[in-house]
Design a protein that fits this description.
Oligomer: single chain
Shape: elongated
CATH topology of the domain at 72-227: Rossmann fold
Mean pLDDT: 84
CATH superfamily of the domain at 72-227: P-loop containing nucleotide triphosphate hydrolases
Number of strands: 9
């Protein structure tokens, strides 16, 4: 039979369609700030629109209330009143909570309160408990507790069942409570308690039992609280597999993680898969593509879906506190897998929209906003952090997406009538960019400063999540955040990840700000640094040269960024073996920095330290040591003992001290630096491994070969794993391990390792790179020891010739080669030539290093042995 909508009913529907949006927006304060001067018009407008509704209601006849609950006669159970809902047949996995309820109820210490987020299964647990203990109670009554009005209406209906009813509903409710208090064996369930004050006077005493459900976790005043968690991974997988009959546990695990173990969302997914004949593996991409639609799809029964349930809670938050809903929107773009620290969103309140910005600037106001979200279980507190469920994030973001989709209509409506919700301008994209900007501002300014790395570790998952949401967006805040992350990863030696992030940042910055913008050039500079660090020295040097030229054109010769590039170019040249060019550029950069920013500025100290590195490579140890000591002292005074650049200075000073022969001091400095780096950076950071390598080198020179070999073997394994088999640092350790093997007389192993190192270095660096010459020098020594004198002499002569040409006749490495060639000539019986080479080496060393330097004493010993009847067996070789 068809029914026809009466004119009064039609009036009500049409009027409500216009009135309801206005009333909701006025009531919740969900109006754009531009409309607030016109707020006084809203209530008169609402009153005028309400007149047809009132008239229609007066004309309608009063309809009787239909009671659908079972009566004692219908159930066949005498003196029993029961309206508890039947639990779902698919309800599972909550046995421990049901046991806890039974235990606490048995104690009769007051109500038991189930708390947890929407969709976690509180209502189903309460229904299952009632069904399981049905025979223990004569009366069981389910009371919707969203509002006090709903509770009174339900208790009044109970009064009718108990035959103590009254025309006044409040009086009927009181009579029902008094009737229960005089009886025993009753169970009252208050479902979805929202406000504690609504329960005032409505909770009966006596020997019966009260069970409540609430999203608010802070309900200890009401009774014994039992928190209902989401399903753990194993439980969620088991639920999906059993509910769908699927054997694909991997797909179930991935889907369970995506849904955060939320039971109602899992039930919807299982119901969809079962009804639509879709596998769990096929459901997951559907959910990621359109979770808004799937979360709102109906269930086989009349329950609210997960999307609708959470949307109601989100609307409640908006009604209570506009700042709270804005904070929830911000959190919805962050990581759900880790806690959200307060400093991430309150460090820069000036960046936040109104009213959240004003709220974040005041601790108590922000406390109240957070409390609103916690009370509704939209977020959870974990110590000083918040955590948000992934499905809550999905629903919150979907509301913003709806704003985006309805933007044109909303703007048209807003032009003449304030009907739409809050924050429509920009929608989802606006909040993504805002999140990126807020995180970027909250991060420590200096990614090289280890003191701020704890914050980076906490913030990085949230930053990466925001960038995932920003896929396809090209804007300044996301580009800047990518660059910040890339710079941090560079300093943490995560070079592969840093490369990806910096290249993405460069692309985005180029599009947003232009190729010559200072921010773009800074990102390109950091990318060039990565190239140098991973051993792509030629590419890195070329990249630094390009950035330096661009900065010189755009910023001038004395701008800080230009000087940074000049320093980096010189550093790359030094690594390539272009020592004279590197020294000249470092000296020029140092002079400008001393004049522009002062002699003790951190940038000046960087130039000083890098110049000292080149001077040490050129054999000017005394000047290098002087610069390293001054730089280290100044850096410690400004940055403390644990800053990475301070540790770098200490490491470099130790190397120079070692080259100057003070092995005890060198060992002490290396041990100190290694201890701090291990604690600060971890066991496998490249800087830590560098300290291990350098300490082992000193131990070998002190004669502790077993300890040196063990450290070098550990370092080599770690460097191969962390940096790769052909990284310059890996090759340094291979060279040093081969030196120790040779010192232990393990000549075959040493030769094989030196040959492998030399081959890779020649291919990557070129035959005349200083590191290649080191390998040639060391391999020649091993060949001579194994009796391959012709090959050894040829290699030693070649190395000496290149070193004389590139480094000069007095360079320490040139003198090493002269000593080693003398050793080989003596073994070949050419004692006069050997004696001449050793004599010239001794004269230079006396002049440059003094008579007591270890290298000078070694030359003196070799000369004495040659002059003592031509003894050659005990001549001392000098590896590099």
């Amino acid at each position: 039979m068809r029914t026809r909508t009466s004119p009064p009913t039609l009036i009500v529907i049409l009027t409500a369609a216009v009135l309801l949006p206005a009333a909701v927006n006025v009531a919740t304060g969900a109006l754009p700030d531009d409309w607030r001067p016109w707020l006084w018009l809203a209530w008169p407008l609402a009153a005028a629109l309400a007149v047809p509704v009132v008239i229609a209601e007066l004309r309608r006849s009063k309809r009787p209330v239909i009671d659908t609950t079972e009566t004692p006669a219908e159930t066949g159970v005498a003196d029993t009143t029961w309206n508890m809902p039947q639990p779902l047949p698919t309800f599972r996995e909550r046995e421990s909570i049901l046991d806890d309820i039974a235990r606490f109820v048995a104690k009769n210490d007051g109500p038991v309160v189930l708390t947890g987020m929407a969709g976690v299964g509180k209502t189903q647990i309460a229904a299952r408990y009632a069904a399981r203990h049905r025979q223990e109670f004569e009366i069981g009554w389910w009371v919707p507790a969203d509002t006090r009005v709903a509770m009174i209406a339900s208790l009044a209906q109970l009064a009718d069942r108990l035959r103590v009813g009254d025309e006044d509903q409040e009086e009927a409710a009181r009579k029902a409570l008094r009737s229960l208090e005089s009886r025993g064996r009753w169970l009252l369930v208050f479902d979805n308690v929202t406000e504690e004050r609504d329960l005032t006077g409505l909770v009966p005493a006596g020997v019966g039992h009260v069970l409540m459900t609430s999203r608010d976790p802070n309900q200890q005043r009401l009774g014994t609280v039992i928190e209902v968690p989401t399903f753990d991974d194993a439980t969620a997988v088991r639920f999906l597999v059993e509910r769908t009959g699927s054997a694909d546990r991997d797909a179930a695990a991935e889907l369970a993680a995506e849904l955060g173990g939320l039971p109602l969302a899992l039930e919807q997914a299982a119901a969809y898969c079962t009804s639509a004949v879709v596998t769990l593996a096929d459901y997951l991409p559907r959910y990621r593509e359109d979770h808004d639609h799937l979360l709102r799809m109906g269930l086989p029964d009349d329950r609210l879906t997960a999307g609708a349930t959470l949307a109601l809670a989100i609307r409640q938050a908006a009604h209570r506190d506009r700042a709270a809903i804005q904070l929830l929107r911000l959190c919805s773009f962050l990581a759900s897998s880790t806690g959200i620290p307060r400093w991430l969103y309150d460090s820069h309140p000036e960046l936040l929209p109104s009213p959240l910005g004003a709220t974040a600037a005041k601790r108590l106001d922000l406390d109240r906003a957070i409390t609103v979200l916690v009370t509704l279980s939209l977020v959870q507190r974990e110590g000083w952090m918040l955590r948000i469920h992934p499905v809550v994030q999905d629903v919150t973001r979907d509301q913003l997406s709806e704003d985006d989709r309805g933007g044109t209509l909303n703007r048209a409506m807003q032009s003449w009538l304030p009907l739409a919700g809050t924050d429509h301008a920009g929608g989802r994209e606006r909040w993504i960019l805002l999140s990126a900007e807020v995180i970027g501002a909250a991060l420590p300014a200096d990614p090289a400063d280890a003191a701020g790395w704890d914050r980076w570790v906490v913030a990085l998952p949230h930053a990466l999540r925001v960038l995932r949401h920003a896929d396809g967006i090209v804007a300044g805040p996301t580009a800047a955040l990518r660059h910040r992350i890339g710079a941090y990863l560079l300093h943490r030696a995560e070079f592969a990840l840093a490369t990806d992030m910096l290249e993405a940042a460069i692309t985005e910055l180029t599009e947003v700000r232009g190729a010559g913008h200072p921010d773009t050039l800074t990102a390109r500079n950091d990318r060039a640094r990565v190239l140098v660090e991973v051993g792509r020295l030629a590419d890195g040097a070329a990249a630094h040269e390009e950035v330096s030229a661009a900065r010189l054109r755009a910023l001038g010769p004395e701008h800080r960024d230009t000087l940074i590039s000049m320093n980096n170019v010189a550093f790359a040249w030094a690594r390539l073996g272009r020592l004279d060019d590197a020294r000249a550029l470092h000296e020029r950069t140092l002079r400008i920095r001393q004049r522009v920013v002062g002699p003790e500025h951190p940038d000046t100290l960087i130039s000083m330290g890098n110049l000292a590195l080149v001077l040490a490579e050129q054999g000017r140890f005394a000047r290098a040591r002087e610069l390293h000591e001054h730089s280290l002292e100044m850096r410690r005074a400004v940055l403390g003992d644990k800053h990475p650049v301070v540790l770098e200075s200490a490491n470099n000073l130790a190397i120079v001290v070692s080259d100057m022969g003070d092995l005890d001091l060198a060992r002490h400095l290396h041990e100190q630096t290694l201890a701090v780096r291990r604690d600060l950076l971890g066991e496998h950071h490249p800087d830590t491994l560098m300290s291990v390598n350098n300490l082992a080198f000193v131990l070998a020179r002190q004669g502790d070969l077993d300890a040196a070999r063990e450290l070098h073997e550990q370092t080599l394994a770690a460097r191969r794993r962390v940096s790769g088999p052909e990284h310059p640092h890996t090759l340094i350790t291979m060279n040093n391990l081969a030196l120790v093997l040779a010192a232990q007389g393990r000549w075959a192993e040493a030769e094989a390792l030196h040959r492998e190192t030399l081959a890779v270095r020649q291919r990557i660096l070129g035959p005349e790179h200083p590191y290649c010459l080191h390998s040639q020098n060391n391999l020649a020594i091993v060949l001579a020891a194994r009796g391959h004198l012709t090959d050894a002499a040829r290699m030693a002569e070649e190395t000496l010739g290149v070193r004389r040409r590139l480094l000069g006749p007095d360079h320490p490495h040139t003198l090493n080669s002269m000593n080693n060639l003398a050793l080989i000539r003596a073994a070949q019986g050419e004692l006069d030539q050997a004696r001449d080479l050793v004599t010239r080496t001794l004269e230079v060393r006396r002049r440059l290093l003094g008579p007591d330097h270890p290298d000078t004493r070694r030359s003196r010993q070799n000369l004495d042995r040659l002059e003592a009847a031509g003894v050659t067996a005990d001549l001392i070789a000098e590896p590099t």
